[in-house]
Write the structure tokens for this entry.
Amino acid sequence: MPITNLPYDGRLNGRAFDLRHEMTPQEKRLWYAYLCTYPVKVYRQRVIEHFIVDFYCPLARLVIELDGSQHYTEQGKEYDEQRTAILEQYGVQVLRFTNLDVDRHLDAVCAQIDSTIERRVAELRG
């Protein structure tokens, strides 16, 4: 059974607030074209543990991350793997897309998010 309330570091709330107002072009596109009107609540720049995730859907326990070039360095890949492992310990699934995916294949990205949320909600409801 997943943990209902996820731990978070409240000291990051101010930074998360700033990031909501400084979204990348791809985050803005995904948010305004799809997630802000999605029928299941999705939050932007949410604090979980000691991380700030790009998007979080609590009903599906799903994190959606958009990866820019910094995620493809060795250090970036290692950090993302560690972060994902920590989030998965709380029963959270991490779904990753590249910025290029959002730029070139927004419909496919949205379809994958939709199917993942539907599947996760069904699984979690039992």
